[in-house]
TrEMBL record:
GO terms for biological process: methylation; regulation of DNA damage response, signal transduction by p53 class mediator; regulation of transcription by RNA polymerase II. Coiled coil: none annotated. It comes from Thelohanellus kitauei (Myxosporean). The keyword Methyltransferase applies. GO terms for cellular component: nucleus; polytene chromosome. InterPro entries: KMT5A, SET_dom, SET_dom_sf. It comes from the Eukaryota. Keywords: Methyltransferase, Transferase. GO terms for molecular function: histone H4K20 methyltransferase activity. Residues 70-188 form the SET domain. This is N-lysine methyltransferase SETD8-A.
Length: 203
């Protein structure tokens, strides 16, 4: 910006040359003047966006670490048993809840899965990136384990995040979700073995 100001002065007629140099020198050497005296100070919109994003991230982490599940409740879902329903609206991209359970390694997950097949129980999701699984079979007072499957009418998408070195599965709204709506996500398992054991995965 200083160079632009100098060029502007240089375009003045040559008979004012001495005056030009004096003005330029005064501008550069006057210790009382700063760029803020000549140009408006404004806050960067990029910094504001980053600050807002950081605050939102902190809020999500706080809710996860403290088990805060707002705007949700367990209800009976026709033909499915219990499910998770909204008691408030969620916007697309909003954090909704965590799939909370025991973090176990692959070996333990295979062993538990076999035992769950005997009585058709179990609520276990694998985290392939970390070679771990989260087993939410036992009721620990959290709602994530009650999320039902829907291949065509899901309104949640899952995401793997890491907090303090521990991988976690969380869910975000994939669309605007009104109040009093059941939350569902696509389990994504299309294997022949799983479809044989759990035919409802087709729908």
């Amino acid at each position: 910006m200083i160079e632009s100001r100098t060029r502007c002065l240089t375009l003045s007629p040559s008979r004012r040359h001495n005056r030009k140099i004096t003005v330029q020198t005064s501008f550069m050497r006057d210790k009382q003047n700063t760029l803020f005296d000549y140009y408006q100070v404004r806050r960067s919109s990029r910094l504001e966006a980053k600050s807002s994003k950081d605050d939102n991230k902190k809020d999500i982490y706080n809710r996860i670490l403290n088990g805060i599940e707002e705007g949700l409740e367990a209800r009976e879902s026709p033909g499915k048993g219990r499910g998770v329903f909204t008691t408030k609206e969620f916007k697309t991209g909003d954090f909704v809840l965590e799939y909370y359970g025991d973090l176990i390694d692959r070996k333990a997950a295979i062993k538990r899965e076999k035992s769950y097949e005997l009585d058709n129980s179990g609520s276990l999701i694998g985290i392939n990136i970390f070679s771990y699984s989260i087993d939410a079979t036992l009721d620990k007072g959290r709602l994530g384990r009650l999320l039902n499957h829907s291949r065509t009418e899901f309104n949640l998408v899952s995401k793997i995040i890491e907090i303090r070195g521990i991988p976690r599965i969380v869910f975000y709204a994939s669309k605007d979700i009104p109040k009093d709506v059941e939350l569902c996500y696509d389990y994504g398992d299309r294997s022949k073995r799983s479809l044989k054991l759990y035919p409802w995965l087709r729908y």
